[in-house]
Structure formats: structure tokens, C-alpha cells
Amino acid sequence: MNPAGKPGKTGSLMPVEVALARLLEMAESSKIPERLRLPLAQAEGRVLAEDLISTLDLPPWPNSAMDGYALRIADWTGELLPVSQKIFAGQAPEPLKPGTCARIFTGAPVPSGADCVEMQENAEVQADERVRFLEPLSVGQNIRPQGQETTVGELVLPAGTRLGPIELGLAASLGCAELEVVRKVRVAVLSTGDELVEPGQGLGPGQIYNSNRVLLCSWLWRLGCEVIDAGILPDNLSTTRARLEELKDVDLILSTGGVSVGEADFLGIALREEGELSLWKLAIKPGKPLTVGHFHGVPVIGLPGNPASTLVTFALLTRPYLLRRQGVKEVEPLKFQVPAGFDWPKAGNRREYLRGRLENGRAIIYKNQSSGVLRSAAWADGLVEVLEDRTLVAGEYVSFIALSELLG
Ligand code: AMP
Ligand code: MG
What we know:
Layout: H1 16-28, E1 35-39, E2 52-53, E3 63-64, E4 68-71, E5 83-87, E6 101-104, E7 116-119, E8 123-125, E9 131-133, E10 143-144, E11 155-157, H2 165-173, E12 178-182, E13 186-192, E14 196-197, E15 208-209, H3 212-222, E16 226-233, H4 237-245, E17 252-256, H5 266-274, E18 275-281, E19 284-285, E20 289-295, E21 298-303, H6 307-325, E22 336-339, E23 351-359, E24 362-365, H7 375-379, E25 382-386, E26 397-402, H8 403-407
Parallel strand pairs: 5-6, 13-16, 13-17, 14-15, 17-21, 19-23
Antiparallel strand pairs: 1-12, 2-11, 3-10, 4-6, 4-7, 8-9, 18-20, 20-21, 22-26, 23-24, 23-25, 25-26
Helix pairs in contact: 1-6
This protein binds adenosine monophosphate (AMP) and magnesium ion.
The site of adenosine monophosphate has 19 residues, from helix 3.
Pathway: Cofactor biosynthesis; molybdopterin biosynthesis
GO molecular function: metal ion binding; molybdopterin molybdotransferase activity
Family: Belongs to the MoeA family.
């Protein structure tokens, strides 16, 4: 553990939280302005563009939480009560006749005059159909009060909420048939590298299959983005420039590879010549080099090409950026603390995101954490965060971010 105050070894590397803050600032100033109305069935995965205010009390009237009998407690003096009406869900009851009870079913409106519902298991029905109550009764029991969930005028879902099954169900319960949502972010995905070949084709000498393309495209779909698959970009300046020029109408150009300041960094050269380029060296592992810039005004993020680096920098930096561009406020994934099930004897100068899983309440890590090994993440349930300059012995707590949290 790094004792407080001990100087770190991070040096000139940019801390992850600084990079994230900068990206979020950029996203904030280029939020997607267009909005549209969609029927609920088409709104899954979209972002709410305006506050959803309740136009109803929910429930709209007091209703029964049980199958049983509604009565006024003062009427129950130990004598048998006759049943004066039967109320099913979906029916409008009569006011309760004094000195009687009402047969009532779950979800049915409680008649005016009744102040309690007793479940049928605690009621004894006589041969003449009058009812005896076997247990003490209390005011309000088994009645769901009007407006217990929400009342007219209450803010139920703020603008910027991501709409999933639960939010859509809630909107439906308020009677909304359509919701105002933000237009999808249009993201062009570019894979750079002369060595890349698409699956389905034969592999020549020195070639590898392009895994980042499908990884990013399918992830972006999950995040509610419109994906423009801009294919493989060879390591060549004129093609790079020409391909970037074709992508004028997107909200983000997202590339992988070619960011390691090597000789093959043609994306960087094109941005420097006709746009704007910052090369960030991040205190993150896997990952480290990140290209951030603009080409003819279109934002560009260039992720490192090794698949596990692509995954981690997309998950922790690009995902929040894309969500914020759609106006989402809560963009950071939930982290929880778990005991490490491994030792980490050598402190690093970058924040490590180890591909790990939970076993018997402890985080264990995949045996090979190389940034080229995507299989580590397929094995994993989450990312185990080990802070820079930190060593660990098993049993000490680390942060764990579930992959399920990051992938949606
Ligand atoms: P680069 O950043 O271009 O130097 O790439 C770093 C490493 O990631 C190299 O081993 C590349 O072959 C590999 N790589 C780059 N892009 C991809 C991709 N789309 N799919 C799989 N591996 C990639
Ligand atoms: Mg490359």
C-alpha cells in the first residue's frame, strides 16, 4: 500500500481521472442537440431529452394489496359483518355501507368509508356469508395509499436518464406512449493497420484478424450509438486523409491502432496537418497512448490497437464521453470494493485494470494480462483496479468494475 504523502512514480503520465475530466468537458461542449419523439417500444437504450413529470397520482386511488375484506375498523365490534359488495380490480366501488364489509381483490379500489383491508386467510366466512375477523386490525393495513409511488407534478425521470426496461415500464405506468429522446450519436469506427484482415478471409504472412472492429461496433450498438463502419485503414497517409474526409457527417471518429508514435502513425500526421491533435500518455494499463483531436471539426479519438488496451480505454474513457455527449449525467461505472485474491508485489506507475472475476467473494485475475490477450476479458467478469504506486497482499481491498456495467 502506498502510504499517504509518498511521492508517486507516475511522472509525466496523465492520470486517468484527468483524461476523463478533459474528455467529459469536450463532450459537454458538443452535446447532441437534436431530439425526437419515439414510441416506448423504440426508446430502449436511448437517452431521455426532457424531464418526465408525472401527470398522475400513482396509484390514482387507494387500492387493496390483498385478496380479502375491506371494512371500517370502528364497525368491527367482534360481531359478524355482512358482505355488502364485491370489488374486483378494474371496478369502481360503491361507498362502503356502514356496518358491513366488502369482498375485495388485489388491485381493486378501496371503497370510501373503509380504512382497512384484512387478508382472506384471517377472515372466517360463516354459512350465512357473514364474516368474522380473527386477528387485530389496524388502520391502513393492506391499503396502498393514493400517490404512494408518485404524485401529479413530481419529477420522475430527469432529462439525461438512459432508458432501459425499468424506465420504460415506469413511463408506461404514467400513461406515456412516447418519449422525447436525444438523437443517436453517430460514430465512425476505423481500424488502422496494414496487418489487418477481416474474418472470413485467408491470412497472409504477417497478417492478423481484425478483432477491434466488431468489438467496438457491437459495443457501440449497445450504448445506443449509430455505427458507421469505416473499415480497415491501411498505414498510408493519403488514404488516411481521404478516408477521414469521407467522415464529415459523423459525431465522432473512433479509430484503433497507430497511436504509439511509431512511424506508422498516419492518423496523427493527418490530424496534425488538417486538424488538431493531442497525444496523451495515460497512466493506464493496458493502454497508454491516446489520440484526441479533430479532423475538419469532427472529434477524433484514437485508441491503442492492442485489443485489451482498446477494451479498457473504450470502457473507461470513450464510453463516458459518448454517454455525456447524449446528455447522460451519471457516466461513471459503479465500482465496488472486494478483497483481492492475489498478491501484487510490484507497484506500477500506471493504474492497472486487470481482467478478473469474483470467486468465493475475492477477485482473482486471469493468468495472462498481456494487452494483446483479449481472451483475458472473455474469461473475466470485471476489471480489477490497482492504483498506481500500489502493492497488494491477498485480502486487501481493491475496486472491481463489473463488465456488465461497462458493456451496456
Ligand atoms: P498499433 O497501435 O497500430 O501499433 O497496434 C498495436 C498492436 O495491436 C499491434 O500488435 C497490432 O497488430 C494490434 N492491433 C491493432 N489494431 C488491431 C485490430 N483492429 N485488431 C486486432 N489487433 C490489432
Ligand atoms: Mg498499427
